[in-house]
Amino acid sequence: MSDFYSLSVLIQKFEREKLILTNKKHNKLAWELLVALSTGVDKVRIKIKDAEGIKPGEEQFRDYHSTVQSGTDEINQRRRRELILRGLLVTLFKKKDEDRLFTPEQRRIMWNTSGERKCAKCHKKLTWEDFTVDHINPHSKGGRSKLKNAALMCRKDNSKKGNRK
User: Fold this and answer.
1) What is the DSSP letter of 125?
2) DSSP E strands: which ranges in the chain?
3) Same-domain status, 141 and 90
């Protein structure tokens, strides 16, 4: 239970820090790292029970195991677990772009450099009043508010698209 609690608290902190998993490959790798940690901790637990020594490279598993065994609800043990989990996972997460919307300058550049000014989805001719700039790679999935990640769309299609590519 402490393992689940530590992981859920860490994920909440990642969300507050605007860190997100941006692709399936990183999501899969995060899962594989957590499985490897769990398996390693279980193997070390057996070695400790059988009074065997641990091998080089198993220190992190021993450290995690000791946080679970000794006072799982103590703040310093929770912090140690969180640091171990953070060290495993943080490099897989990307910082979400702080700029959620395209700037007025970016919108003008998109409008002025778009030859036909048609919706990228339905190809309807757009006017200045009814166009939107879409994140090709959705903002919620790590897409940046940069021109190389932008496309002109009508409001209807941009709304329907949601956070899909």
Assistant:
1) B
2) 19-20, 94-95, 131-135, 150-154
3) no
